[in-house]
Amino acid sequence: MQVEQVIANEEIRADPWATTVAAADAIVRAPFGAHPFYSRGFYITDSPHLRAYLQAAEKAAGGDRAALEEYLERHCHQPDGLADYLETIGMKRLLELHEY
């Protein structure tokens, strides 16, 4: 299970139903791991990013795969891990998504 932050065991025990997840074998701290979707209380959905993907996918459905291939190369194939992926998004954009 991917989480934005690991909390103290005391917090979990104070409200166990709020932290119950069926079939979770492990917890991995991965800030912005849900990007381009949201993580409630941390950041909002990156709608412009999703629109760019959808536009590329629509072009691919019409036979022009170039934009989709470019998107996939930049965001899926090139990054070696989460940190590299987040660098493609950029710190400024990630901070703009911060949920206050």
Oligomer: single chain
Mean pLDDT figure: 93
* Strand percentage: under 5%
Q: Uncertain runs with pLDDT below 50, 5 residues or more?
A: none
Structural class estimated from helices and strands: mainly alpha
- What is the number of domains? 1
Task: Kindly state the number of beta strands.
Answer: 2
The total count of helices amounts to 5
- Terminal residue distance: 24 Å
Rg is: 17 Å
Q: Please give the share of residues in helix.
A: 40-55%
The order of strands across the largest sheet is 1-2
Query: Would you list the SSEs in sequence order as H and E?
Result: EHEHHHH
Described by the principal axes of the CA atoms, the overall outline is: elongated
Largest beta-sheet characterization: 2 strands, parallel
What descriptive keywords fit this protein?
mainly alpha; 5 helices
Architecture blueprint of SSEs:
Layout: E1 2-3, H1 9-14, E2 28-29, H2 47-61, H3 66-77, H4 82-89, H5 91-96
Parallel strand pairs: 1-2
Helix pairs in contact: 2-3
